[in-house]
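Methods: example folding runs. The two proteins below were folded one after another, and each record is reproduced exactly as written to the output file, sequence line first and structure-token line second.
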Amino acid sequence: MLRPYSLINSHGKPHFGHFAQPVNEVNVKNTDYRTPMNTPAGKWKKHFNFKQFQYFGGISDDLIFGCALADLRYIGAVFVYVYRLSDGQMKTWQFKKPLSLGLDLTNRPDNGVSTFKSGKRNIQMRYQLNSQGERRKTLSIDLGSELKVQAKMIESSDFQTMALCTPTAVNGWVYAQKTAALNVLGQVECELGNFDLKQSNCYGHHDFSAGYMRRETFWNWACFSGKGMSGNKTQTPILGLNVSWGVNETGYSENCFWVGNDLHTLPQVQFKFDRDDANSNWRISSQNQQINLSFKPEGMHKERLNAGIMATNFKQIFGRFNGHLITKDGQRFEIENQYGFVEDQYSKW
């Protein structure tokens, strides 16, 4: 496993593979970015072909919430939602800005700040690494009387982050850094109520992704954070899941799950669902049955846009997982009615 300080080396090439620790900087300005014909790309292609997105989500006893910031160069996209489990009530907010005006995403996943500002509306994701090796991720949202969020998740120095960089298409690369199974502290205040995240047993996950993705990109993704049961059902460890297909598939897999601070790798997975029926059940499994999960939808955030040079058809669906996860050494964890997320995403950017 590699541990480069910066992602791009002195020759302008990214370090590929899994990293023992997250990189300090996605130093895209140092990239020797080429066209598919292996000639140096112009500065405008180098700028506009680079994409970033960051996501902070939480799952508690009575609330699910999520916030995504995406800099697609031609457009900046932000969405926020809160969903109350007790009655299925949901509130959503979406913002789109041409040329990502008002949106500034950091390229430093350890010590950086990503911000969105639109009038009096402010969103901030802050990343901090202290001298003891502890990482802190903080989400602050101020949408006036509609929504206020102050939430943080802390990775101890021995937490095993999933971090890797993979080649994509003939001339691109993607860096992905993901965490799950982390306690979330803080407050959410909105029309649905005031929620103390610690008291409601909130667990969170985070995604920091950036790179030169395919012009037309597709993925499915599944994630949850919460308490599972071991095979003898005498323990309730904190479990987190991150699996996908469609982006990081060239030589390295991001698929994994966490048991507390420990990361366990998974092989390639298959997603089966009815794309014509958003309420259909999903099946997420691997050929070796290390992962075998069903997913039943309960709510959804979706976006659809076809603007010629750009397009998106996006569904983030939340609901309940059932099934099992098995480590490579045979330890089995049962998943019963665990809330989490799946995504079905197509983008042309």
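Second run, written to the same file directly after the first:
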Amino acid sequence: MARFAVVGAGAWGTALACHLARLEHAVTMWAYEPEVAEEITTRHANSVYLAGVSLPETIRAATDARQVVAGAEVVIFVPPSSHLRGVSALAAPGVPRNAVVVVATKGIEERTLKLMSMVLEETMPGLDAERLAFLSGPTFAREVAAGLPTDVVVASKGMTAARKVQDLVHSATLRTYTSDDPVRLQVGGAIKNVMAVATGACDGLRFGMNARAALITRGLAEMTRLGVALGAEPLTFLGLAGVGDLVLTCTGDLSRNRTLGLRVAEGVDPAAYLAQQRSVAEGFSTAAAGFGLAQKLGVDMPITEQVYHVLHRGRPLLESVRQLLERGYKEELQGIRG
């Protein structure tokens, strides 16, 4: 049994806490809202972010980040990507020097265009590669919380941290694979949300299954091109945190990002829609960050570009569709292979 701190009490953080507690690890959670922390501890529920799920009674939650991480052997950060910088800086002074740190947040910081690993380099500068890992894969929080069969991947440089985490979290219902390519895992986990928005809009416009399959496949090409530009190996995007997470998020009805795309196709203002939601649809901010990063690196990402313009610049959806469909033809693997 190990001592885990889960920093973030949204749906995904709560689902991870459920899994860890079922493995009989000691789990403490950090929640921003006092009422969420109180409900998790006393009523064994999180009605705000994971309604209808009974949590293991051993899980405890608090609002003091330093207190939550103190004494933990493994600290898992699961806040929205826009809050990882602030939350990790808040918790950093309390993280034990020998603790393994896992990032389960999926996104790119919009203001700086930095991956989550780059953010932690600034907020936790003493954290070396042997203690830092990233967890991703095709995971709907509600299914993980329910104990349904799921596969994930944990990545770290040199594999040391990844193997430590694998040993602690692997089970028959959460099969855990390892990877030595954390860049691929972060890029895949971020860009798949943008593609889910696009696929939701495609389905909302009733463009058919052919268009959906093409959009997902070309989305895989975009995330691979961006990953390669950042130093990832292209073949690794065929794994769980690449094509696996992409397919799930683009096609599953539990996907908040796909739902955002469906609402956009109905004519709903995306910013107004998201303002009414408690849970974050990461694809909204990642569209801006992904497009900005693509421009910075000179990477061709036409789907991401159009999602950005629709969500953030008010471009009519059908105008973006027209621009995508009327692009010139090219080689399928352009920008992916040498």
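Comment on the second run: The first strand starts at residue 3 and ends at 7.
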